[in-house]
Design brief:
The complex is a heterodimer of chains A (about 110) and B (about 110). Chain A has no helices and 11 strands. With about 110 residues, chain A is mostly beta strands. In chain A, strands 2, 4, 5, 6, 9, 10 and 11 form a 7-stranded mixed β-sheet that branches. In chain A, strands 1-3-8-7 form a 4-stranded antiparallel β-sheet, with no helix packed on it. Chain B has no helices and 11 strands. The chains are: A mainly beta (about 110), B mainly beta (about 110). Chains A and B meet through strand 4 and strand 5 of A and strand 4, strand 5, strand 9 and strand 10 of B.
Chain lengths: ~110, ~110
Amino acid sequence: EAAVTQSPRNKVTVTGGNVTLSCRQTNSHNYMYWYRQDTGHGLRLIHYSYGAGNLQIGDVPDGYKATRTTQEDFFLLLELASPSQTSLYFCASSGLSQNTLYFGAGTRLSVL
Amino acid sequence: QQKVQQSPESLIVPEGGMASLNCTSSDRNVDYFWWYRQHSGKSPKMLMSIFSNGEKEEGRFTVHLNKASLHTSLHIRDSQPSDSALYLCAASDSNNRIFFGDGTQLVVKP
């Protein structure tokens, strides 16, 4: 099964803080996605990418930047974190278009 | 507006019973559907996919798709306590954006 590793697993920061969430996949997948999941809700798409240097906008991009530095690595950046960004963040990858998503274990972020 | 709507929000079925979950997309650009299952404290895992009109069966799980109405349903027969989880419907558009609904929380009571 595809391996997707997220770090850190847990992060606490203060309002206005700067946070970077990391995601690495080792299966040469083209597509990578960042989602957030709030309690009792499904996943909301923040950003996604179909290759190194590419970035596509999702449904809830405000307050988030992302960068795909290599085929393997996709980063989510919160430059001025706000309490509304407290959430569980999932990274996922897929090999081809219209293909199964493989998820990382998630990063739980708290913004105080 | 959420592009994928799921119903019911929660469902309780007895062990051995049938669970039926529904999903509809309001986006006419959507063309592929998946069902994912997320156990408490875990990440989602793909359960079934369906891309063509009709029905697909895998063991105790059956999924239906009507592309004209952009409606899919998941049916779990002989439900087991281990099936208790959040079931997420996902759909993709021609830009490979993959959207999820808010999920149906299924509880199977022994």
